[in-house]
Amino acid sequence: MPPLAAVLTFAAIAALAAWEWGGLMRQDQPARVMYAFVLMLFCWQLTVAAQPLVPVLLGVSVAFWILVVPLWFRFKWTLAGNDFFGYLLGALVILPTWAAMVALHAVDTWLMLAAMALVWVADISAYFAGRAFGKHKLAPSISPGKTWEGVAGAVVGVLIYGGIVLSFSPLKDKLPLSLPLLVLMLVLLTAVSVMGDLFESLLKRQAGIKDSSNLLPGHGGVLDRIDALTSTLPLAALILHWVRS
Length: 245
Known about the structure:
Pathway: Phospholipid metabolism; CDP-diacylglycerol biosynthesis; CDP-diacylglycerol from sn-glycerol 3-phosphate: step 3/3; Lipid metabolism. This is Phosphatidate cytidylyltransferase. The structure is a single chain. This protein is mainly alpha-helical. It has one domain. The protein is built from 8 helices and 2 strands, in the order αααααββααα. Strands 1-2 form a two-stranded antiparallel sheet. A hairpin with a 3-residue loop joins β1 and β2. The chain is globular and about 50 Å long. The two termini are 18 Å apart.
C-alpha cells in the first residue's frame, strides 16, 4: 500500500475539489459535503481493496480528456439538469487525479513534482508567449486571453524543460524513452494541460462564477489551482505505468 500520509493528504485535496465541484453544479452545502465525503471513501477503497483497477481508471480518464472533452468544447455541454451525470463526471475528473498523485509519489516524490512543474512551465510559457506574440484566439468564448501562439510557447517551454530534467536529473533513469517518443509524450502532456485549464474555465463560465471557491484567499479554490493537473497527471501516471510494465 502507498504511504498512508500521502494517500490521506491527496485524498483531502480531492475532497476539497469535490466540494467545489458541487458548487459548479449549484448544489447546496449538505450535498457538497456529502459528495466530498463519498469521494474520500472512493479514494480509500481504491487504496486498500482495488489497486489493480488504478491503471484502468487512469486509462478512462485519459480517454475522457482526449476524446470527450473536445466534443464538450464543440457542443458546450453543461452540468445543469442531471445531477447524477454531474457527480459521475466530477469523480471522473477528480478521482484519477488523486490516483495519479499517489502513483507518481509512490515511485518518486520528485517525479510527481516534476510532472506538476511541467504544467506550471506550460502555463507560464503560454502566458509570456501569448503576451508577446498572441494574435489568434484559441477559444474566445471560453477563455478570451488564450491564443494559439501561447499554446506554441507552452510546447516550446515544456520541450526545453523536459530536455533539461531528463538530461540532468536522476529521473531520466525512471523514464527510458526514445527521443521521438519523449517529444510526443511532452507535446501530448502540454496539449491535455491546456484542455484541463479550458475545461474548468468553461464550467465556471457556465456556472456564472469567477473562482471555484475562496478556500485559498487571493488564489481562488483548489480546482482553480489543479485544473490543468486534473488532465495532465493521469496521463503522466499512465505513461509511467506503461514504461515500467
